[in-house]
Design goal:
7-stranded antiparallel beta sheet, 2 domains, Jelly Rolls, globular, 0% helix, 237 residues, 7-stranded mixed beta sheet, mainly beta
């Protein structure tokens, strides 16, 4: 019997610091909801907008898989491993924080905001050597199909993390429908709608809604309008 959880866009935590406007799907910083701490191993899903020229100063992380997906603009990254890079729409970035890293993230542009998703996944192993990776994706590869952007395997499509998790992006035309088959038993899938309207199984969803489903081995996704979405398949325990 399928289990599911629905998080409508407007029910997310809302944190506005002026330079940073963040919507939290799960408990984070000053936003805490005991019913919304995590979805399986998916711990953080932050929908961030950073004002022109502003950003996060150097700060630490450890024992977390941190994934950044830029949606608009350019995000400049520096870390204690010596990486200096800019990620932009169409890129995906991953850090395995492991034994500990520090990093900073700034909006590289002085005239427009940068928008990105910051996602944390609890790792399957602790205290690994920290690592960094990023890649540029082909946006055409998600048109009416599931574009894999993350997996547990370093030789598979996309970036990889220390967890039995798979992320896919989809950009569907109105009316297009497709099954998504789970990669691993005991995993669940959390869908996050970037824009448009889709139905997952029988649940209608709109922009920035989140919907988690588990105890099934596949889901049916139908685009009710031209739409774009992120599927995050993660272990539930």
């Amino acid at each position: 019997m399928a289990n599911s959880v629905l998080h409508k866009s407007e029910t997310r935590g809302d944190s506005d610091h002026g330079w940073l406007h963040s919507r939290h799907t799960f408990s984070f910083a000053d936003y805490y909801d005991p019913e919304r701490v995590h979805f399986g191993m998916l711990r953080v899903l932050n929908d961030d907008t950073v004002a022109a020229g502003m950003g996060f100063g150097t700060h630490p992380h450890d024992n977390m898989e941190i994934i950044s997906i830029p949606l608009e603009g350019d995000l400049e990254h520096k870390d204690s491993m010596g990486n200096v890079s800019v990620i932009k729409q169409g890129d995906v970035q991953v850090m395995s924080a492991g034994t500990g890293i520090t990093h900073s993230e700034y909006n590289k542009n002085k005239d427009i905001p940068v928008k990105f998703l910051q996602i944390w996944v609890i790792p399957s192993v602790r205290n690994v050597k920290p690592r960094y990776d990023q890649m540029t994706l082909s946006i055409e590869d998600r048109h009416n199909k599931f574009q894999q952007i993350l997996s547990p395997n370093s030789d598979d499509e996309g970036v990889w993390i220390y967890q039995n998790a798979w992320f896919h992006l989809g950009k569907f035309d109105k009316g297009f429908m497709s099954d998504y088959n789970f990669k691993a038993k005991d995993n669940g899938v959390y869908g996050f709608i970037l824009n448009g309207n889709i139905t997952i199984n029988d649940q209608e969803l709109t922009s920035r809604d989140g919907f988690g489903i588990w105890d099934v081995d596949k889901i049916v996704i139908k685009a009710d309008s031209e739409s774009e979405f992120l599927l995050m398949e993660v272990p539930m325990k």
